# Entry
Amino acid sequence: MAEDPVWLAFRHPGRPEAVAVGITLALALGCLLFLVLFDWNWLRGPISRAASASTGREVLLNGDLDVRLFSWTPSATVRRLSIGGPAWARGRNTAEVEQLDVSVRLRRLFLGQVEVSSLTMTRPTVHLIVDAQGRRSWDLKPDRPDDGRGAKLPVIQRLVIKDGRLTLDEQRRGMKLDAMLAAREARSPEDGESGFQLDGKGTMNGAPLSLRVTGGPFVNIRRDRPYAFTADLAGAGSRLKAEGAVTRPFDLGRFNAVLELEGRDLADLYLLTGITTPNTPPYRLSGRLSRDGALFRFADFSGRVGSSDLSGTLEVNKMGARRRVDAELVSRSLDIDDLAAVLGARPRVTSGGTVASSGAPGKLLPDAPLRTERLRAMDGSLSYRAASVKANTLDIRQVRLGADLKDGILKLNPVSFTFNRGELNGTARIDARRSTPYSAVDFRLSGYTLESIIPARGGAPTVTGRALGRAKLEGPGASIHDLAANSRGTISLVVPQGRMRSAFAELLGINVGVGLRKLLSGDQSTSGIRCAVADFTVAGGVATSRTLVIDTDVVLAQGSGTIDLGAETMNLRIDGETKKPRLLRVWAPITVKGPLVSPSLGVDVSAVATQGGIVGALATLVNPVAALLGFIDPGLAEDADCGALIAGAR
# Structure
């Protein structure tokens, strides 16, 4: 140390060292005086230009700028701050603040953290715009993909907002909102207006919209202490109420809440949330909502949809540029009318509850259109199971549905209905990549009892047996009705064996003598059905019969005709031939005409008139005894080849 020149100069400074120290102290004192006396307004222009270049927006500091650096919490005051909108929305600034007061903790800055000790905004106004293309006016980096993780703001220990205003113009969903913002500390322990408050009103597609969000005062906020909030959103026929907490204050990507939903149709939630759901009757659900970055989870929810209970879990996630929704749903007891609404029927609410109708009186097939643009906006999957079904005319006991949606193509597998006896199982594929979807369906019916279709008469079943069937159709159409009206494919129904009331079996062949006698006497005897086959080819929505045969022990009936799936009408003609000699047998086809929901049975009277004319001629030309031959059938019909007919229909 005795030989170190630096140490010697420090212990015994000479003139050069003294001059250097003096210059250093003078410069430090000069800088300090400069900062104390400096007018920060001189930097408003450079700061505005630097901020504008960094954000791509016009940032202006139109009022005084005051900075206070000499403190453990440096602070600044900015007056008349404005941030312009993007090029496509320059007609309105994104934000305007009359006065902004902010202070930060210096010690945290040394650690590389930004912690705002105090932030006060006086009369801030924020205008948010989303155009028809989905561009957001507040997005400073529109080219960066949105990961859906939510904003992360620095911790603000004390936040005060005076006379704030927020407006939203969401042009894709027709949503407009004008809200007042306020945040202040409690003036007293009983002060009910302290904390954060957002109250807004507006419209959505012309209908009223309201939003209210409240939270506790922003005082002594800590990173490890949850921040409680409540939210109430009502509009588009729906209402959402949430009560929960942000897990880490100012990290809006993480929170937990109890959520209650209610409204007239779950499909209306698309306007509020962007999540596609099927149409439903009025609903009321509640469960636990949580967010972890891009993942939203509505877990263990339960409630009612129409007259049915519903529970399960739903997850919404951001996968790249697309949203994905996955749901597992269960009903303990399903009202089949509620499911009809999901499949496209239009729910009609009455004072006694909720029922479903297709929207067109007297029609069978639902005609509500499928929103293809919504299906193209997301991916997802669905699993649904109904453990039991309330009493219904089809005698359905259980339901199971599965769905997978990806890139605008919806696959339904399985679509399964379990009856008291028998099942209907099938699959469907809906290509919604175009404005008019193209669908293909394949459904198989097995073991369904005829007693469930044809009502009993006189306390005894008219027909017994089990039906097998298949419908394989494809075509364009925005609804189930439109698909059927434009479809092509095949429809078949087979009854391998069964029994029929003898009276009706005889009447298939218009055996007036035996058939009427059995009906009038209340005869309950039955005849065997060897087989029944109905096989149709469908083109342009019209099903034309290839095979239509009902073979019983006493009569062989064969028919022809068409079923118009678009008009939902049928026009069938059945000719019966007896297998045994019969007296007073009228040769006249049976007709089945009219709407599918209520067809009418009749007799082709022109054939009866022709037969009567022949008989009259015989009576005139020969004798009355010979005329009776016109009503006698020798019964020459033979059994149908049931095996070949059934194989052909399948």
Residues 511-521, 609-637 have pLDDT under 50 and may be disordered. Residues 55 and 140 are 6 Å apart (CA to CA). The longest strand covers residues 115-130.
